[in-house]
Amino acid sequence: MAKRDFYEVLGTSKGASADELKKAYRKKAMEFHPDRNKDNPDAEAKFKEVNEAYDTLKDGDKKAAYDRFGHAAFEQGGMGGGRPGGGYGGQQGDFSSAFSDVFDDLFGDFMGGQRGGGARSRAVRGSDLRYNLRIDLEEAYTGIQKSLNVPTAVSCDKCSGTGAANGAEPQTCPTCSGMGKVRTQQGFFTTERTCPTCSGMGQIIKDPCTKCGGAGRIEKDRALSVNIPAGVETGTRIRLAGEGEAGMRGGPTGDLYIFIEVAPHALFEREGPHLHCTVPVSMVSAALGGDIEVPTIDGGRSRVKIPAGSQSGRQMRLRGKGMPALRGGSVGDMFIELSVETPVNLTAKQKELLRTFEEIDADNNPESSTFFRKVKSFWDGMKS
């Protein structure tokens, strides 16, 4: 049976670019993979056909020869000296090696490998660090400069982060040939695992640095000065680029993330940019009205007028006395909530005065009167 045109096999035109060929190949390879077509006896043959087509067209020289001479370019006497009778058309791989290419194309990036050969870079980026910082509400209001001691891994000064003693260069790992991973092939399946010799680094150090043991970094507390802006609240995250762990063997440094927690305050309760403050007032002050002084978060005082007849729970707003917004420059408000306090430990004279007041009470308690009218109506309804 005559071979089909390679472009037809991949479903592309003759003028397709390398990216278009690769995209078409990956689609066809997944479509006809034997593991996904166990009930289709023709899938394996089509899978081989797709790989043969792509192995030819992905190579610039072979593609040029195929475009000029077609399949004849790879038959006996033609370019490449292929096997008699066609077969894979001069390709040296078999079905398993074809699947290996599929594995590289589909999963190479996910596994952290590099396609197309070549040694894996020995430099590894350092880890990001998290630091939990607890501050007071007053510090969140004004902003503050904080000095921190952060335990981290820093570049080894003795070997300059290379991990090797006396300036020696690391050598390519003989087990994985610098790839950092070893591949095991069983039939159609190819599995990869981290190289046990170099632990995935791709290189080994014959003479490791005595100070860092070949890691290229050492554990150390580092002093940092951090600017905490005004308006931060619990959950605010501050990123310090390049202040995390040093990279392995000269790799780039990670970042440091500072997570802010604002401690509860004895007087104020925060709600976004606003503050709430509960202020106790005497029964007499609530009844007669008057002025009181309340604290503000900036350390000052504000005079608040209490209307006569105020009840517990009544709120009054002090505009602009809340927290600054982290972004935008606006300032929240402060809400004063009254808590009418019942007197305790009364003297005999005080008790007598209160009883006298109660006797001459002329419906001065509207909420109580309304409540008991509702109670009476409820009981009357139950009786009927």
TrEMBL record:
It comes from Aquimixticola soesokkakensis. This is Chaperone protein DnaJ. Zn(2+) 2 binds at residues 173, 176, 195, 198. InterPro entries: DnaJ, DnaJ_C, DnaJ_domain, DnaJ_domain_CS, HSP40/DnaJ_pept-bd, HSP_DnaJ_Cys-rich_dom, HSP_DnaJ_Cys-rich_dom_sf, J_dom_sf. Participates actively in the response to hyperosmotic and heat shock by preventing the aggregation of stress-denatured proteins and by disaggregating proteins, also in an autonomous, DnaK-independent fashion. Unfolded proteins bind initially to DnaJ; upon interaction with the DnaJ-bound protein, DnaK hydrolyzes its bound ATP, resulting in the formation of a stable complex. GrpE releases ADP from DnaK; ATP binding to DnaK triggers the release of the substrate protein, thus completing the reaction cycle. It comes from the Bacteria. Residues 5-70 form the J domain. Keywords: Chaperone, Cytoplasm, DNA replication, Metal-binding, Repeat, Stress response, Zinc, Zinc-finger. The lineage of its organism: Bacteria, Pseudomonadati, Pseudomonadota, Alphaproteobacteria, Rhodobacterales. Pfam families: DnaJ (PF00226), DnaJ_C (PF01556), DnaJ_CXXCXGXG (PF00684). Belongs to the DnaJ family. GO terms for cellular component: cytoplasm. The gene is dnaJ_1. One of its GO terms (biological process) is DNA replication.
